[in-house]
Design goal:
Elements (H helix, E strand, L loop, with lengths): L8 H22 L2 H21 L15 H13 L4 H4 L9 H19 L2 H17 L7 H19 L2 H16 L8 H19 L2 H14 L10 H19 L2 H16 L8 H19 L2 H16 L8 H19 L2 H16 L8 H12 L2
Helix pairs in contact: 1-2, 2-3, 2-5, 5-6, 5-7, 6-7, 7-8, 7-9, 8-9, 9-10, 9-11, 10-11, 11-12, 11-13, 12-13, 13-14, 14-15, 15-16, 15-17, 16-17
């Protein structure tokens, strides 16, 4: 059993890092709020210890006595989750002694919690911390591209919640710099390219500047060849490229765009485990692509497939998830179009029901609430 926090500074850090790793891995499997909360707590304690026991040169001072109520709380949580400390004692730890690294790690975990729960304070704090990280990190530091990319990703998350154009513009700026600073052969380059493309795609959706979607596809196409088969990031690259091609189809109407979008999105789902947290998003995006293809083909099989995929996405997503209103509204829209073209009255009832839920789950002031209200109003008119 976990009895006490170890006395020496390095042992404390090793213990806390073991907690962070355990709860992070557990959250990847469970999507439990308790796990992500414990992950945030462990990171905060690591940072607090480093701030208290680091001298001006950045080296650790071995000052004993971490006596924190939060430490006891985490100790108890770890004790319940891992009754035998043997696995912690024998774990391999990679404790980076620099303050910015730990500061950024808190930002990343807060952004992850925001993406799962939707608490705006989390993403605001993440961005504040990550701005500090970039300011504290000298040019030439090998971690700078990662810090810039993480800040850009967090700003994108905030943009999707608030609709502030400055957030998405700043995100693009930081991500472009991350790509520029990353060598052609660096393993993180595909991720930076894909995320930059995704952020440009979001700005295209919001502002409608065609150059953004063209550039998004260009960056994402560059990411695919340098992401080999078996790389865990490959499904995300494929899904992101598919989403951008779908968006270009809505602008250009080129049927090849939507056909390619479906192909890439189907490959992404095939490579994604059934319990992976990104699977609902991939299913929803593929469903949206089939909906768009239906608008061109008017085939019942296309709209039926769109509904089936969106229903699966909804079933795998909690009501508190930030993307749930999007999935519900898109599902309602697909039911509406099935009603319009094939006359099944039950489809109209389903459309209204799902769109009402989308509106109910969306807070006042959210930039997408008018869209959800408009979709609901359109269904009620029928």
């Amino acid at each position: 059993m976990v009895q006490d926090l170890p006395d020496s500074t390095m042992n404390k850090l090793m213990f806390l890092d073991a907690c962070e790793c355990h709860f992070s891995e557990s959250f990847d499997r469970s999507r439990s709020k308790d796990d992500i909360d414990n992950c945030v707590l462990a990171n905060r304690l690591i940072l607090q210890l480093i701030k208290a026991e680091m001298n001006v040169s950045g080296k650790f001072l071995d000052v004993p006595g971490l006596t924190l109520a939060e430490g006891n709380q985490l100790k108890g949580n770890m004790s319940k989750s891992v009754p035998n400390l043997h696995c912690v004692k024998n774990a391999t730890f990679d404790i980076h002694p620099q303050f910015p690294f730990c500061l950024n790690r808190i930002g990343v975990v807060l952004a992850l919690r925001f993406d799962e729960i939707g608490n705006l304070e989390d993403i605001m704090e993440a961005i504040s911390l990550q701005h500090q990280v970039v300011q504290l990190t000298p040019e030439g530091n090998p971690y700078m591209p990662k810090y810039l990319a993480d800040l850009g990703s967090s700003l994108q998350c905030q943009f999707l919640y608030t609709g502030e154009v400055t957030d998405i513009s700043d995100a693009i700026s930081f991500l472009k710099k991350a790509v520029q600073l990353t060598s052609e052969v660096h393993p993180s380059r595909p991720m930076h390219l894909s995320v930059l493309g995704r952020v440009l795609q979001h700005r295209f959706t919001y502002i409608g500047k065609f150059k953004d979607i063209v550039n998004a596809i260009s960056f994402q196409q560059k990411a695919i060849p340098v992401t080999p088969e078996g790389n865990p990031y490959r499904p995300k690259c494929l899904a992101a490229l598919g989403k951008s091609l779908q968006n270009r189809f809505t602008y250009s109407g080129q049927i090849t765009d939507i056909s390619e979008a479906i192909t890439f999105q189907q490959k992404a789902i095939q490579l994604t485990p059934k319990d992976h947290p990104s699977r609902p998003m991939y299913l929803a995006n593929l469903g949206s692509s089939f909906h768009h293809q239906f608008m061109h083909t008017r085939k019942l099989t296309d709209i039926s497939e769109a509904i089936s995929l969106l229903q699966k996405a909804v079933q795998l997503t909690s009501d508190g998830h930030p993307y749930m209103p999007i999935y519900l509204s898109d599902l309602g829209k697909s039911f509406l179009y099935q009603f319009i073209h094939f006359g099944e009255v039950r489809n109209l009832s389903d459309a209204i029901s799902f769109q009402q839920r989308a509106v109910q789950l969306t807070p006042e002031g959210h930039p997408f609430k008018p869209v959800y209200l408009s979709n609901l109003g359109n269904s009620l008119q029928h």
